[in-house]
Amino acid sequence: MPNPPVTPTFAGTPFDNPAADVVIRSRDGVHFRVRSAILAEASPVFSEMLVSPECERTADGKYMIAIAEESDTLDPLLRLCYPVADPTFASLTDVRLVLAIAIKYKLEEASLILKKTLRAYMKDEPLRVWASACLLRLEDEARGAAHALFGKEIPVKAPPEFEEISSGDYFRLTKFLRAGGNVPESFKFWEPAMEDIPAAKDEKKTRLLLDSSPPIIAFQPRPYADIICRSSDGVDFRSHRIILCLASSVLEQKIAHLCPDPPRPVTGSSSTLPILELDAPGSALGPILEACYPTKRRLHLEVDLHELMTMMDCARKYDIQQALDSLGRGAFWLASRDRPLASYLLAARMGFSDYARSTLSNLSGELQIYGCPPEMEDTPATIYHRLLINRHQSYATTSRLTGTAITGTPTSTAPSNAAASPSRKTNTKSTTKPTVKVPEVPDPRDPWLLNLWRQTAHGLQGCKSTDIWRYEPNLAKLLKESLAKKIWCTKCEMNLGLMSALHDMYKDVRAAKFDHDYSRKALAG
């Protein structure tokens, strides 16, 4: 028995008039009855659809145009074309979605109205307007929103539109703001500029090296294979079930499902071996399968960053932790030193948060010095935004910790006068005495030590993360210098001298017993 015809769902007034001669069907199945004269006048795209021989017909012979947009965005768009009250929008997101359709179907009048509505959000939400304009490729609105950002703090939380625009777009916004808007006429937020793309060190030489070098871990065929692992691009790897099961619980489950019976005696023919289909390219799957075998091997660490991340993704997908750890400690560590920003972006984008965090120490200085590598164009702006916020918070913390040392002095734990000491007994009786101005007490701290404090603060504030170890205070050396400068009283000097001797004794004994170093002056006699 044939299924009864489905009754269509019609839109509300004025798009439910049976006198209309065209029906627009939204993606969610809502029918909008409209007049072809209004539609053709408003949009050249719809006008061409109406005369197309491929245009569908309804049961009563009317033209039907099926579009990919939902009814909740199509309704306000059509109201902008009809002689009815203009729609109201609940949020900036709604404006952007409807404006995107207006631009797609070349609805000129509707686009002008919606652009004006978009600009109305510029005062309160300039960053979101800028991101929306980038998504819609509206240069005037994007520049206007960027100008509105001058002098404003970038919010810690990224706006929702940052999931859709690229980190490259965001980089160009920061470039625009740093330049005070003085950029070339050809500048566009969504188009990379050649001068921003960092030049690889000896790029041609590096590419030739990578092209001619062996895989990071080359798969080695071995006898007595009892299973074939087939990659997504059709490369076969003759492997051994027991090895794969020991290396990965995920592969163990897949093999158990594929081969419920014990393996048969190996005949040497590949045609009789079960085939395990795996969702990974052969260039990544081969090295990961090879890493399952307990064999000593010398890793080739010069590998393309993208290929490396594909291997790491494969190892994670199939829970081959040994391979993932080996790649992370070796090749990724090396790549993050050579290309720290690209390594961070790829690791963060692919969900390797720990590896992304490990690259932060290699990202020294302002982020703009790394330019805009190609990976930024494929990475959501939320990732670059988090990195920028991390940098800003890092600088703010550094400034807070070192600013007092540079502009003033470290906080003293000693009371400024005896009356302020909480340990002194005070008279609980209420007495009224005239206010006496307490004379300023000279700073009892040694000028040499205060100067050293400020020098260290200056160094910490301006140093790169890779050089911060240079400013670690050597307390043992500092103690000896303070004794030489006679900044302590006699009693303190004797006790501090004992502490210094204790430290020297430990170092001398360690050198003699464990380092086998007998050349120290203390051991010479």
TrEMBL record:
- List the residue ranges of the region (Disordered): 402-441
Where composition is biased (Low complexity), the residues are 402-439
Which SMART domains is this protein grouped with?
BTB (SM00225)
State the protein's name. Answer: BTB domain-containing protein
UniProt cross-references to InterPro entries, sorted A to Z: BTB/POZ_dom, SKP1/BTB/POZ_sf
Taxonomy, top ranks, is: Eukaryota, Fungi, Dikarya, Basidiomycota, Agaricomycotina
Q: Which organism is it from?
A: Dichomitus squalens
Q: Tell me the SUPFAM superfamilies matching this sequence.
A: POZ domain
| Record-annotated BTB domain positions | 20-82
A Pfam family the protein falls into: BTB
